[in-house]
Amino acid sequence: MPKVRWGVLGVAKIAVTKVIPAMQRGEWCEVTAIASRDLAKARAASTKLGIPKAYGSYDELLADPDVDAIYNPLPNDLHVPWTIRAAERGKHVLCEKPLALTADQARQLLAVRDRTGVRIQEAFMVRTHPQWLKVRELVRGGAIGDLRAMVGVFSFFNRDPANIRNLPAAGGGALMDIGCYLINTSRFIFDRAPARVAGLIERDPDMGVDRLTSMMLDYGSGHAVGTCSTQMVPFQQIQVLGTTGRLELQIPFNAPPDRPCRVVHDSGADLFGGGRTVIDIDTCDQYTIQGDRFSQAILSNHAVPLPLEDAVENMACIDAVVRSAASGRWEVPQ
Fold it and tell me: What's the mean per-residue pLDDT of the chain?
């Protein structure tokens, strides 16, 4: 069975602890190389994970003719430049979210994709997880009546000033790191872009990054409301509410790979849970699914699961949240 040969840029924690091991369990993925600006770190990761090749620079990996696709988990400010360099070397790219620092930056990749002919996708792994596919199926099938609202929270606590998530120049902050999920999944469930966006941002007085961001997205017949924070109790949950019922994703984003996920369907029969039905989603690893689906698109010469235009649209919404927080007005994503 043919497999896509993957190279990984950097030894980011998410790559070595979650994404690479998951891709190695995939049917269509083979991780053949890893690079770091520190060769010792690359070699340590390759030894630990059983990756055949280790490189002491990203350019060396991009020059490897035996690498078909790149996974880019570098800091946010390096997503666009290294995705461009990889594409120009003929490599397909799966780039961690957020794809860019602004929508205008993300749009640069549209031209690069079209010029080079490679596939580029933003790595929103949740979009291929069966629990999100099930929720969208239920919403579309009328299980909760007419969709009216989606309410979400995503938070954790990290006040380490050296952490990349707390560096403004690197694209840190709650909105870019985790608020992007709230926007992306609301667009997925409403199946369209919001007409306008409102945002509130509270920044850390020492580090300058947003540590608490709230947003409202206007979808016309329904609204999405979300709060994210990097300095709040660890928590995540999504409620999708309609005219005759609601759906609850209990662990919507960091879905566990070693146990089933649960989606609650509540008819609203009473406030004590009398109308609740629990839907168990089979155990799976969303990073394995993501890698395999991207690889299958390459091997079959089909479109990737999440088109690059979707990533640009998501960045436009993020930009609008930032503008709204500064202006105090509704802003239109553009």
Answer: 98
